Each structure stands twice: as C-alpha cells, then as structure tokens.
Amino acid sequence: MTDLLVTGASGYLAHRLIPLACQRGEVVVLSRSEPDAATRANARWVGADLLEESTVDVIIGLRPRAIINAAATNPGSGHSFATNVMGAAHVARAASRTGSRLVHVSSDIVHSGQAAPYGDDAEPDPVNDYGRSKADGEASILAAVPEAVVVRTSLIYSLERMDRGTAGFADRLRAGESLSLWADAIRQPVYADALSEALLILALDAVGERGTINVAGEQALSRAEFGRRLLAHWGVDTSRITEGTALDVAGQPLDLAMRFDRARSLGLPIPGVADVLG
Ligand SMILES: NC(=O)c1ccc[n+]([C@@H]2O[C@H](COP(=O)([O-])OP(=O)(O)OC[C@H]3O[C@@H](n4cnc5c(N)ncnc54)[C@H](OP(=O)(O)O)[C@@H]3O)[C@@H](O)[C@H]2O)c1
After folding, report:
1. Does residue 265 lie in a domain region?
2. What digits encode the pLDDT tens for the residues 234-248?
3. Can you tell me which atom of ligand 1 is nearest the CA of 109?
4. pTM, to two decimals
5. 272: CA distance to ligand 1 center in Å?
C-alpha cells in the first residue's frame, strides 16, 4: 500500500510538493514524462497517461491511502485541456474504487472575475476554455468522490525555480525588450511551499474536509505589481516594465481576489507575496 500518490510529477508545483510529501511517508509519483533526478531519488515514478483508461487500473493497483491530483494542462502548453477533464475523471474513478482520500488542485480561473472576492463555495462561471476545463474537472471529481477536496489556487511561484510566466518575462527584459504587464488583473499569488504544505494537510491530516477550498496567498495584487516584485527578487532589471490593461483581452478575468474563510479556520498557511519576498 502506498501512503500518497501525487500526479503531475514533472510539473512546476511538483518541485516543491514532492520533497515535502516524501517527508510524510512513502510517495509514488505519476506523469507521462520522467520527473527530475531529485524527484526520482525520493519517490517511485510511474510513467502513465491519465487520458488512458488503463491508468485507472494502474492507480487502483497502487492502493494509495491518499491522492493529490496536481496533473493538468495549463495555457500555453500547446496541448488540449483534456487532462483537466478526462484525466481528473479517471483519477476520481480510481479513488472511488480504492476509497483513497482525494485532493484535487483547481484554479481561480473557474471564475469570471465579475464578482470578487470569491468565497470558498462560489459557483464557477468560467469565461475561457482553460477555466471551463478546470470547472468541468472539479465537477467530475466531486460527482465521483463527494468526500474529495478541491483546492482553488492562484499563480504559483517559488524561490527555488522561476515559474514559466516569470521566466518568459525575464527573457524578454534581459533581451532588452520592454514588457507591459496588466495593472488591472488582480490575483493572489501562492508560494509553492505553502500550497504544498496545505495540500498535504488536506490529504493526510484534515481528512474530514470536503468540497471546494480557496488556498492561495492572502495578499491580492495586480499582475504588474507581482511581476515587478518577483522579477526584482530574481535580480532582473524591471525599469522597462510598463503598465497595461487586460480589459480588452478576450476571455481574461480581471479581478480573481478570493476569501479564505476555510483555509483560515483550518490554519492552512496562506502567506502573501510581501510575507515571502519581504
Ligand atoms: N502554475 C500556476 O500558476 C497555476 C495556477 C493555478 C492553478 N494551477 C494548477 O496547479 C496544478 C499544478 O500546476 P503546475 O503549474 O505544476 O502544472 P505543470 O507545470 O503544467 O505540470 C503539469 C503536470 O501534469 C502532468 N500531466 C499533464 N497531462 C497529463 C496526462 N495526460 N497524464 C499524466 N500526467 C499529465 C504533466 O506531466 P507530463 O506532461 O510529463 O505528463 C506535469 O507533470 C494544476 O492543477 C494547475 O491547473 C497552477
């Protein structure tokens, strides 16, 4: 029997989630491509595609006590969002068969940005394909496993590795280009270590919790402000950043600020950007 199965093993969140998970017990990780050497040194890797029906039996065979489903297709990868829907449904089907505790990672992007701040149980009203796929994934998780927890989070960053968005901004600035960042798109960026700790608490300790829970950074700030602060942390010259608007960008929610009533009552870590970056 496996203590914990973590999907999304080769992803960005995984570089912080898996080392922390391995401190809690025996961990098996799953992704299609091989994860980095540090992950493989600490956890057993299963190479499998969540879009394949046969992966349901692979997961059942592992008999995990708990599953954290962090696999997804994020915008910009060039892939369809099928993993967010069908992949989630396959994980849920396996969990319902094994009785595993299931924690699924979702996103603030299930909301339109028209009714912030969003409470834990706010109904999804997505305005783009990615948001619709994450909302559909949430629905299939909770339909198959009503005891599951769905964690809605925001932009993930760490101090060990640049996230893809910041890395793209850094490349452009280092190449001498100017960069316009949205001053009117409000997000609650989440420190990868804190999100990982919260996911582990929900998977292994607070096992009676169910339904949707917002877990992100408690500080709401614009993408422009966040970009500036994080790039400065990485030693990138931010003087060529200008402020733009997301108002005219189709399918781009403006204000995705959240409330954290459940996270606060559970004592989950939700440090804001200023707490983390100083
Ligand atoms: N990054 C953010 O700022 C952000 C913001 C809000 C919410 N989230 C959510 O947080 C979670 C983690 O995000 P992340 O940034 O770590 O994602 P990521 O870096 O894009 O990694 C996605 C992971 O999912 C795996 N995956 C995708 N399709 C798969 C499939 N069909 N079968 C098996 N594995 C598959 C990928 O591995 P292979 O490609 O090797 O299979 C990879 O390990 C996701 O649920 C995401 O939607 C992220």
Report:
1. no
2. 999 999 999 999 988
3. 6
4. 0.98
5. 23
